[in-house]
Amino acid sequence: MDVLLLLFAAIALGGLVFLPWMRRRKAVQHAEQGLTVAADPMAGYGFVPLEELDVRLPGPDEELADALAEMHRTRDWRPAAALLQSTGDDWELRWQRVQTLAGAAAFELAQTPPDSAAPTGPRAGGIWLRTWRAEAPKDPGGAQTHAQFLAVQALRDPGSQDFRMILEEARTVCREAALLAPGSPIPYITELAVARGLGERAADFEELWSTVRQRAPHHMGAHLAALPYWSEQWHGSREQAEGFAGRAAAGAPAKSLLPALPLFAVYAHLPEANMVRSLFQSAVVERAIEGAHFALREAPADHPMAPHVRHLLVWFLVRAERYAEAMEQLRLVDGHVGAVPWSYGRSPAAEYAAYRALAIAGWEQLGGTSAGFRAQG
Q1: I need a labelling partner for 360 at 20 to 30 A (CA). Which of 203, 254, 262, 368 fits?
Q2: Cα 99 to the chain's mean position, in Å?
């Protein structure tokens, strides 16, 4: 698989929304040991081999994958514009696609920065995004992607001397994008991350959040973008974050994924130490896991954000030694790994595969077999 496609998960979909989450390096190191537990994680189970795992997306999106491939080949922005135009006002799907397109441009720029003598030459990374904005300045998709790109660039390196300057530019582009598509929540969702990075006052953040909710009151992606502001890593506390997630879950309409939001709040506040089994079998974690299970049962199977919930659920279920349940989630997400928690690591595919190996080893220790697993599918 193309190197570009294998490596940009850390910036793509997981980039802006999930960068604020805490990295669980000790847990990942523990999981990597699981690769030695199961002799061959793919043998008989039908799982995708490590080298073929798609790190770009949490789940399949053939239209987006085709657009990315065409843009990488031609450096032409039109496939992206056509994709977003066809997505229309499916706000969950549009948010995910805008993030991925922006992440692709950011990764390309990092890999092939513009040559000072030829800043628009064929090796200039992300040239298609700059050309898109120049040739179609009134295209709301281009403006939304540009705003997200700037936010991703800034939040990748909060210690940079240009951090605030880039975020201020991102906010300006967010507001341009909002004028181009007045009913869209997308620019305001991006602005949530901008406001977080700039350290906006709680009252101002609440006002921005109110604007988002007027346009998309039960948008799962928007709630995931807002949650970090209230977390202790940024401008809130564990109590504030869990309160925000709990209220959203309690007020969720039918067929919503919001009952899974507390799982993300719990993940953000796990202690760096004491990553032991008893923690993952506690009442708080168990309630969050059951909320995620409930959300996945009730929401449409093709909900654009469902794979995000399933990936994090795999992580928790393996840690809680609930291997049969983890295997069921793996059956539904295997092949794509562009999601928290894998996107935090140096090698998302390898870290996902480590947890998959632990799940298989636990499944087999409980008497499960590859034939039994296939029969259940």
Answers
A1: 262
A2: 9
3-state helix, strand, coil in the chain (%, to 5): 65, 0, 30
Match 């928790």 to its residue by tokens.
Answer: 316
Across the chain, mean pLDDT equals 85
The predicted model scores a pTM of 0.85
At 77, is the pLDDT very low, low, confident or very high (cuts 50, 70, 90)? very high
Q: Write out pLDDT tens, residues 299-339.
A: 999 999 999 999 999 999 999 999 999 999 999 999 999 89
DSSP state of 339: S
- Neighbouring CB atoms inside 10 A of 303's CB total 20
CA distance 235 to 371: 49
Beta-bridge mates of residue 289? none
* DSSP H or E run through 360: helix 348-365
Choose the weakest-confidence range: 15-24, 49-58, 74-83, 291-300. 15-24
Q: Which residues of 272-292 are buried (b: 16+ CB within 10 A; e: fewer)?
A: eeeeeeeebeeeebeebbebb
Q: What was the pLDDT predicted at 102? A: 93
Cα diameter, the chain: 64
pLDDT in tens, 108-147: 887 775 554 444 433 345 789 999 999 999 999 999 999 9
| Contacting residues for 49 by C-beta, under 8 A, at least 6 apart | 42
Task: State phi, psi for 118 to the nearest 5 degrees.
Answer: -145, 70
Torsion region of 282: left, alpha or beta (phi above 0 gives left; psi -120 to 50 gives alpha): beta
Coil, helix or strand at residue 118: strand
List the Cα angle 359/361/362 in 5-degree steps.
65
d(CA 310, CA 295): 10
Residue 15 token pair: 């980039």
